[in-house]
Amino acid sequence: MTSGVFGAYNYYQLGAMHRRSATYTDGEKWSTGFMLAHIDTKTQSTCFEYIDIRDHAVVGGKYYNRAVDEV
User: Which pTM does this prediction carry?
Assistant: First the structure.
């Protein structure tokens, strides 16, 4: 889908950091990351940065680890 004003649209489906051991689904197939959106209000442009979370995540060069009960 595109817009004459803003160009192409992107769609993202995020796991929102849910635990993979959810009883209602096969959690091994989930991506449990989140998105950082960088917005330039002057040019009205955006840049999306997806952060994947597995047993750890790296955000801005800093490592974050899951707690033992979150794996």
Answer: 0.52
How far is Cα 13 from Cα 15, in angstroms, rounded to an integer? Answer: 7
Query: What gap in Å lies between CA 63 and CA 43, rounded to an integer?
Result: 32
Higher pLDDT residue, 26 or 63?
Answer: 63
Where do the domains of the chain lie? 6-70
Comparison of pLDDT for 59 and 54, the residue scoring more = 59
Q: Which of 71, 51, 70 is nearest to 62 (CA)?
A: 51
Task: Give the C-alpha separation, 61 to 22, whole Å.
Answer: 29
Name every residue whose Cβ is closer than 8 Å to that of residue 32 and which is 6 or more positions away in sequence: 15, 16, 17, 18, 19, 20, 53, 54
C-beta of residue 56 within 8 angstroms of C-beta of residue 68: no
